[in-house]
Amino acid sequence: MADKQPHLNGAYYGPAIPPPAQPRYRHHHGRTCCCCLFGILWKILVTLIVLVGLAILIFWLVVQPRSFKFHVTEADLTQFDYNADNSTLQYSMVLNFTARNPNKKLNIYYDKVEALAFYEDARFSNYDVITHMNSFRQYTKSSSPMSAVFSGEKVVILDNGQVSELNQDKSDGAYDFYVRLNFRIRYRLGDLISGDFKPKVKCHIKLPLANNGSETLFQTTKCDVDY
């Protein structure tokens, strides 16, 4: 006797479909560890940057460091003759400077100062204002005098335009000079002494030629300090 088929309600399309297999995830332990390590290092770096920035800010607010001030207080030009035939310049110029330390807590060591004199972008002389033989310490809120003597004879090549400017200055009775001073200084706070700083001071002066060796009137000129 044949088996009876079960009664089916509705449509029948075949056996039931099994549920889809769950995907298998691979654990990348090495990559995860690297990401964690990188994150930790990044946080440490950011923290160090913030702490250093705060330390610099606190130092700046407490110490309030300021650049020294520099002026040409006196100047005397007794000779400035140029021979275009052999390009020889004869000159004699003396400059007196004043350097002021405006800081309340920082002293300044002037280890070396060299002065370079230019006319029409041509350097004609240099002078060692401060050397290790006369270096000194400048205390807070104080001023110190310095001097530079430019004297001698030197071959200086001036083109036609520069010679024309020199003749015009000679006719006007005053010469335009540019003096640059190269510094090597250190700062001192208590028992702490900084490393070397090498600022440059730039002075533009207009100086008349003295007549018969008499001193000329000169107005104090402020110079620019560039770190």
Q: Which terms summarize this structure?
A:
single chain; Immunoglobulin-like; alpha+beta; 11 strands; 227 residues; 21% helix; 2 helices; 2 domains; seven-stranded antiparallel sheet; four-stranded antiparallel sheet; 44% strand; elongated
Question: How does this structure look, described?
Answer:
- The chain contains two helices and eleven strands, in the order H-E-E-E-E-E-E-H-E-E-E-E-E.
- The protein is of the alpha+beta class and 227 residues long.
- The protein has two domains: 34-63; 69-226, Immunoglobulins (Immunoglobulin-like).
- The strands form two sheets. Strands 3, 4, 5, 7, 8, 9 and 11 form a seven-stranded antiparallel β-sheet that branches. Strands 6-2-1-10 form a four-stranded antiparallel β-sheet, with no helix packed on it.
- Strand 3 and strand 4 form a beta hairpin.
- It starts with 28 loop residues before the first helix and ends with a strand.
- It is found in: Membrane.
- This is Syntaxin 7.
- InterPro entries: NDR1-like.
CATH class (first level) name of the largest domain: Mainly Beta
Shape, per Cα inertia axes: elongated
Number of continuous helical runs? 2
Largest sheet: 7 strands, antiparallel
Measure the end-to-end span: 113 Å
Residue windows where pLDDT falls under 50 for at least 5 positions: none
- Architecture of the largest domain, according to CATH? Sandwich
| Name given to the CATH homologous superfamily of the largest domain | Immunoglobulins
Number of strands: 11
**Percentage of residues in helical conformation:** 10-25%
Q: What order do the SSEs take from the amino end to the carboxyl end, as H and E?
A: HEEEEEEHEEEEE
Structural class: alpha+beta
For the record, the count of structural domains works out to 2
| CATH fold type of the largest domain | Immunoglobulin-like
On the 0-100 scale, what is the average pLDDT? 87
Protein name: Syntaxin 7
Subcellular location: Membrane
Keywords: Membrane, Transmembrane, Transmembrane helix
GO cellular component, one term: plasma membrane
